[in-house]
Specification:
By secondary structure, the chain is an alpha/beta fold. Helix content is 36%, strand content 28%. The chain has 2 domains: 19-236, P-loop containing nucleotide triphosphate hydrolases (Rossmann fold, 3-Layer(aba) Sandwich); 242-307, Alpha-Beta Plaits (2-Layer Sandwich).
Amino acid sequence: MTEEGSDIASPSDRTTPTIEAEGVVVRYGDIVALDNLSLKVSKGAVGLIGPNGAGKSTLIKSVLGLITPQAGTIKVCGLDSVTDRMLIRDMVGYMPEHDCLIETMTAVELVSYMGGLAGMSKDDAMPRSHEVLDFVGLGEERYRPIGTYSTGMKQRAKLAQAIVHDPAILFLDEPTNGMDPIGREEMLDLISRIASTNKSVLVSSHILQDVEKICQDVIIVNGGIAIVQGDINTLLSQAKGRYRLKARGPPDSIKAFLQQLKGQYEIITVSEDFGQVTVVLINEGGSNGIFDRASLSGVQIRSYVPDRITLEEVFITSVKEGSR
């Protein structure tokens, strides 16, 4: 929370960055972990993705002031990551990927303890712990030792300890790791609800479908550089002339139709299921030629609509191009 008269910026919309890095360089001996990295993180859910060793962990440590860059600056809500590192850490919650929980503690004991480490008084930490455990769905299990929890329950406990002190910024590292499909959906819903409360939530995950589902912005880091950053819907709508076509017809007619398409258009994917073929193709001209070919082949087109690329495709393409 920000006290009246504080110098800490309190941006009211997604256009004002909460984290802003400019020309950041971090070296470990001869290894360059961050190479003149610049980026901006706004409020809401932001995906932070990249290959292993891309520099994501170094970036987080630099934001928290755990590492001092050799060059460049990082501002967090107007605070300097080097000179104001302790103030910044008070504003940040962290959900690690690895198992960090004290298994002999109950969830309410652990979460209140973490609240105390974040500077909360005991009188504030305990009731707040009950509140966040109810929020993450552990209200009925709060008095059980964490060692008896399932993987999904441990993930919820890790989220609870990250938000107990009501941080302005959250770093979530692989938040759905090891969860079953239902638990995963529930975790994503919790993250979306947190992100909607005027906070910055950085989600680092190898499950790109999760990032695509809940994040408004995405940052792709590779080789210590932010190679892609921006609004995720804009990024996924940049496939010029890309369409998804669905058609039905006898097998021989479908085969002939596909042969004609392959001779005229760039085909991205083809899949067939129960007598229906789905084709993703590039067509920068009109659609008349496609419908004419379907008619001549005896095929019925059921739909023909613009197709979005996936975040996985953006990621793979960007990393490959950045590695050249």
